[in-house]
Write a structure and sequence with these properties.
The protein is an all-alpha fold. It has a single domain, classed as Hypothetical protein af1432. It is about 60% helix and about 0% strand. It has 19 helices and no strands. α3 runs antiparallel to α4, α3 crosses α10 and α16 packs across α18. The N terminus is likely disordered. Belongs to the dGTPase family. Type 2 subfamily. Keywords: Hydrolase.
């Protein structure tokens, strides 16, 4: 397969073309100077949920330092990586950016700890999935337009936001929107190549920045990271090229080289998969096996890195203590609001589906607002 030139706006035949979008749930006239995917991106950036991401954290909770990644900085890093891969593949950069910036809009405060706690609280009420919650945010919970709830994004952006979904929830979506974004989970087909790319860019980004944040926090050391072949190889190359370099610059340069290696690997592996599958259209890509991915050696290296971070960072006693407190805060808030719904904002308190309203309200909180609300409602301050 011939390589696609890295020229902005030049789409490959298998890319998502905004002129062929499946459209929006509520019909709107097109914009004179922007494609539909550009409009999606702009609506996401101007949304309330997007602004909240600056005070929602990944691994380290907001009070632990000003320089750790937040959901906002993570989303920006995912968008940058995804666009860097999309252009040489001839994929739609605007759609990639829209999906990347919106993919975490439904995340709770306190990262995965908050999500797990809220899922436990909602176990008898349909559960809680953060990808599905991101879709709820853009389909319903944002209140910015006079004619519809949500942001009224295109099918392709919404499809990319819903990167995971249980079969039960997919069937509920299908009942409301036949042939819509839930259908592929029932048919076991794939999303667009742009959505596949954002999913992988998400993984690449958080692995890299969790190394950086882990070392910055003092919970990981460069010596420990020597256990990770992918990192150790690039660290050694940095030291060979710059023998006098030391400290944080070694870390930054090793991470930069590691990211570049992963990006180039994805580009080459995906080109090979596209050629092997003889994929000539966006619809063919949806019917094929997953196309965007690492080579097998890089996939193994990435998996080893994820397992290392799980053992040494995510399950570190200090992180576990914080996440335990975060779960307690979310559970306490859920109980308090279910008992006293009037303590929520009026729009949530008035809803008949009380438990889902409480989940929506808590999921929209920033870390620090959740801490303050929990203290106000219970008298306990569990985090600084």
């Amino acid at each position: 397969m011939a390589e696609v030139a890295a020229v902005p706006g030049v789409l490959a035949p298998y890319a998502s073309d905004p002129a062929r979008t499946r459209g929006r749930r509520f019909g709107e006239a097109g914009a004179p100077t922007r494609t539909d995917y550009q409009r999606d991106r702009d609506r996401i950036v101007h949304s309330t949920a997007f602004r909240r991401l600056v005070y929602k954290t990944q691994v380290f909770v907001n009070h632990e330092g000003d320089l750790f990644r937040t959901r906002m900085t993570h989303s920006l890093e995912v968008a940058q990586l995804a666009r860097s891969i999309a252009r040489p593949l001839g994929l739609n950069e605007d759609l990639v950016e829209a999906i990347a910036l919106a993919h975490d809009l439904g995340h709770t405060p306190f990262g995965h700890a908050g999500q797990d706690a809220l899922n436990e609280c909602m176990a008898s009420h349909g559960g809680f999935e953060h990808n599905l919650q991101s879709l709820r945010v853009v389909d319903r919970l944002e209140e910015r337009y006079p004619d519809f709830d949500g942001l009224n994004l295109t099918f392709e952006t919404r499809e990319g936001i819903l990167k995971h979904c249980s079969l039960a929830n997919a069937q509920r979506l299908e009942a409301v929107e036949p042939g819509g974004v839930g259908r592929r989970f029932i048919d076991r087909t794939q999303p667009s190549l742009e959505a596949q790319l954002c999913n992988l860019a998400d993984e690449i980004a958080y692995n890299a920045h969790d190394i950086d944040d882990g070392v910055r926090s003092g919970l990981l050391t460069l010596e420990q990271l020597e256990e990770v072949p992918l990192f150790a190889m690039h660290k050694a190359s940095v030291q060979d090229d710059h023998p006098s370099l030391a400290g944080r610059r070694v870390l930054y340069e090793a991470i930069r080289r590691m990211l570049s290696a992963q990006v180039y690997d994805v580009i080459e592996a995906t080109r090979a998969a596209l050629g092997a599958g003889d994929i000539a259209s966006a619809d063919e890509a949806r019917r094929a096996r997953p196309v965007v991915g690492f080579s097998e050696p890089m996939r193994a290296s990435s998996s080893f890195l994820k397992q290392f971070l799980l053992r040494n960072l995510y399950r570190h006693p200090q992180v576990m203590d914080t996440t335990s407190r975060a779960r307690e805060i979310v559970r306490g808030l859920f109980t308090a609001y279910c008992r006293q719904p009037d303590e929520m904002q009026v729009g949530f308190a008035a809803r008949a589906d009380r438990e889902r309203a409480v989940a929506d309200y808590i999921a929209g909180m920033t870390d620090r607002f959740a801490v303050r609300e929990h203290e106000r409602l219970t008298g306990d301050r569990l985090l600084p």
